[in-house]
C-alpha cells in the first residue's frame, strides 16, 4: 500500500497531504478547519484530469470523454470517515485513503527530513557531514547508508552505467585515498523511537579530491583522541577566519598573498576546520569569526554528529559572529545572557559611571559605541553533578593595534555584565572567559584580567588621558594556556592574541595541548595555508574541577 503523508501541526492553520496519483507527485495545502468532503472532491477531480491527460491523443478524443470520476473515500478502522468531519480530525494516523482501486495508508506527522544537503568540498581523509534537519523525529533514530561510485571498465564492450557500492552506515563518512575521483551517495531514512518516514537519496555534486596531507593539527589530535571523564572539561577557543574576510581582495593580495587561492576557499577551509574540531573531542568550543551560513550549513551539522549542541550570536550589522558548542552528554543549557557591549554601555544603568567617564571625550565615545563587539554568555550545568555550573563567556574584541583603550573599556563592560550574571542569576557558577582578545600579554587588558586591576597610568591609555581610569574586578582568573609565543601568525605579524581565562578557585589545568611547532606553522610561510584553515591557532586545554 502506498503512503499518503499528512503534516498537521496544531499551531498552524493549514495541513499538507502528500501522495502520488497516477505517477504524479501531489502536495495539497488545505485549511485544517475545512470539511473533508471538499478535499476528497479535489482529489477525485485531480484523478480525472490525470486519467484524461494519460489518454489524451489526437486519435482518441472519444476515450477522453469517457473518463469517469473515481470514488474517493477515507476510512478509519474500517469505517468511512464522514465528509463533514474537519480535516484536522479526519486525517488520522493509520487511516486509509481510497482513490478508485488505489489505496493509500495515511501517515500523520511521520519523521520527515525538511532539509538534507551534502557538502560541495570532499577531501580524502576528512569527514563528510551531511546537513540534516528533521521534523517529528530524532537524528539518533535515523538510518544512513553511504555508497561510493565505481566506474565500469571502459574497455568492456558497451561500457555500462556506474555501479554504487555500499561503503558505510554511520552518519559521518570519511573517504579514503582509494575514493579519490569518485562521487558519494547517501541514502538516509528519518526515524523516531516508533517508526520511520520517507527516505531521501542524494549524490555529491563533486568527486572526492586529494587532501592536503599532513595538517598542523594532526599531531595535536594525539593528545585528544578520546573524550575526557566527568572530572575534566576540555576547552577550545578558536578564531576560524570568517569567509567574508578571507575572500576580500585585501586578504588575497596583501594579508595572505602566500596562501594558495584554493586554500582560501570556504569549502576547502571548512573541511579542515571540521576535521580539526572533531579531533579535539572537546566539551566546550568557543569560536570567533563564524559566518552565519557556515554556522548553519556546515559547522553545526558536523559538530552535532559528534555530540555537540550549538549556540550562535551574530554581530549587529555583520555577517559573522560568535559560536559556542557544548557536549550534550556532559552539559545541559541553563540560560543565555548575550549582549552587544556598546549597547550595554549606552543603556544599562550598571555602566552609567563608565559611560560618563568615556563621554568626556566625544571621539573616544564614538570609537567605542560604533563597535559591534559582542559578548556571548552561556550558563551550563553538569549532567552528572548538577551542583557544578559553568558560565562560558566568548568574545572577539576590537582589532586595531592602537585600540588598547577601546578594548579596556569593552572588557570593563564585559566583566561587569559577567559579574552580575554570576552574583545575581547563577551564584556559584564557574567562569570561563575565552576568545580573541586582540591583546598581547603586555597589554592593559591582560593585566586587568590576570591581576584583577589596571592603573589609569597604563600605556594603553596614552593619547586619551581625559578618559583614562583605573579598572578592577572581583574575579580570580588566570590564562590556562599561559602566554604562547603566538596564536596568530600572518605575513606581517605574529603574537599571542587568544586566551582561555579560567576561574582558579574552581579549576586547575590538567594539560595544555601543545601548539603546532614553528616549523609546522611556517612550512607554507605563514597562516592560513593549505595545511591550516585560519590565521589563528586553536587553544586547547583540559581543565580539572577542584
From TrEMBL:
Occurrences of domain 2',5'-phosphodiesterase 12-like N-terminal (ranges): 110-209
Location of the Endonuclease/exonuclease/phosphatase domain: 238-536
UniProt cross-references to InterPro entries, sorted A to Z: CCR4/nocturin_mRNA_transcr, Endo/exonu/phosph_ase_sf, Endo/exonuclease/phosphatase, PDE12-like_N
PANTHER family: 2',5'-PHOSPHODIESTERASE 12 (PTHR12121:SF37), CARBON CATABOLITE REPRESSOR PROTEIN 4 (PTHR12121)
Descriptive protein name: PDE12 phosphodiesterase
Protein's gene: Pde12
Amino acid at each position: 500500500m502506498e503512503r499518503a503523508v499528512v503534516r498537521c501541526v496544531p499551531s498552524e492553520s493549514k495541513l499538507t497531504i502528500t501522495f502520488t496519483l497516477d505517477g504524479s507527485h501531489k502536495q495539497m495545502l488545505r485549511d485544517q478547519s475545512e470539511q473533508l468532503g471538499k478535499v476528497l472532491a479535489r482529489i477525485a477531480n485531480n484523478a480525472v484530469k490525470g486519467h484524461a491527460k494519460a489518454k489524451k491523443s489526437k486519435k482518441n478524443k472519444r476515450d477522453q470523454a469517457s473518463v469517469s470520476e473515481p470514488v474517493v473515500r477515507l476510512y478509519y478502522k474500517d469505517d468511512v470517515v464522514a465528509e463533514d468531519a474537519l480535516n484536522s480530525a479526519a486525517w488520522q494516523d493509520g487511516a486509509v485513503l481510497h482513490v478508485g482501486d488505489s489505496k493509500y495508508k495515511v501517515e500523520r506527522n511521520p519523521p520527515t527530513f525538511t532539509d538534507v544537503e551534502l557538502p560541495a568540498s570532499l577531501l580524502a581523509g576528512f569527514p563528510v557531514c551531511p546537513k540534516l534537519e528533521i521534523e517529528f523525529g530524532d537524528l539518533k533514530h535515523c538510518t544512513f547508508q553511504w555508497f561510493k561510485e565505481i566506474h565500469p571498465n571502459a574497455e568492456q564492450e558497451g561500457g555500462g552505467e556506474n555501479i554504487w557500492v555500499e561503503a558505510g552506515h554511520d552518519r559521518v563518512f570519511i573517504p579514503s585515498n582509494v575514493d579519490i575521483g569518485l562521487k558519494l551517495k547517501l541514502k538516509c531514512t528519518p526515524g523516531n523511537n516508533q517508526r520511520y518516514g520517507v527516505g531521501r537519496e542524494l549524490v555529491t555534486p563533486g568527486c572526492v579530491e586529494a587532501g592536503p596531507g599532513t595538517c598542523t593539527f594532526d599531531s595535536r589530535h594525539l593528545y585528544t583522541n578520546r573524550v575526557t571523564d566527568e572530572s575534566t572539561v576540555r576547552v577550545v577557543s578558536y578564531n576560524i577566519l570568517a569567509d567574508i574576510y578571507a575572500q576580500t581582495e585585501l586578504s588575497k593580495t596583501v594579508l595572505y598573498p602566500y596562501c594558495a587561492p584554493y586554500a582560501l576557499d570556504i569549502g576547502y577551509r571548512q573541511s579542515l576546520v571540521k576535521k580539526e574540531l572533531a579531533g579535539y573531542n572537546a566539551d566546550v568550543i568557543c569560536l570567533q569569526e563564524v559566518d552565519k551560513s557556515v554556522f548553519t550549513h556546515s559547522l553545526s551539522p558536523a559538530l552535532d554528529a559528534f555530540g555537540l549542541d550549538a549556540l550562535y550570536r551574530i554581530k549587529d550589522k555583520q555577517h559573522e559572529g560568535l559560536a559556542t558548542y557544548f557536549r550534550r552528554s556532559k552539559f545541559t543549557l541553563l540560560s543565555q545572557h548575550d549582549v552587544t557591549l556598546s549597547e550595554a554601555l549606552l543603556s544599562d544603568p550598571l555602566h552609567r559611571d563608565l559611560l560618563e567617564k568615556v563621554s568626556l571625550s566625544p571621539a573616544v565615545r564614538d570609537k567605542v559605541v560604533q563597535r559591534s563587539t559582542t559578548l556571548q554568555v552561556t550558563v551550563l550545568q553538569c549532567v552528572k553533578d548538577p551542583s557544578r555550573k559553568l558560565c562560558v563567556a566568548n568574545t572577539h574584541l576590537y582589532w586595531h593595534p592602537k585600540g588598547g583603550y577601546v578594548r579596556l573599556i569593552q572588557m570593563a563592560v564585559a566583566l561587569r555584565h559577567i559579574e552580575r550574571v554570576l552574583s545575581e542569576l547563577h551564584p556559584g557558577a564557574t567562569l570561563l572567559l575565552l576568545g580573541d582578545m586582540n591583546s598581547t600579554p603586555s597589554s592593559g587588558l591582560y593585566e586587568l584580567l590576570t591581576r584583577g586591576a589596571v592603573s589609569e597610568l597604563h600605556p594603553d591609555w596614552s593619547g586619551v588621558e581625559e578618559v583614562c581610569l583605573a579598572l578592577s574586578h572581583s574575579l580570580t582568573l588566570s590564562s590556562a594556556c599561559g602566554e604562547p609565543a603566538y596564536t596568530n601568525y600572518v605575513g606581517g605579524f605574529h603574537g599571542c592574541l587568544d586566551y582561555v581565562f579560567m576561574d582558579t578557585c574552581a579549576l586547575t589545568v590538567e594539560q595544555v595541548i601543545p601548539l603546532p611547532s614553528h616549523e609546522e606553522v611556517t612550512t607554507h610561510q605563514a597562516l592560513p595555508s593549505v595545511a591550516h584553515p585560519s590565521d589563528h591557532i586553536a587553544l586547547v586545554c583540559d581543565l580539572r574541577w577542584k
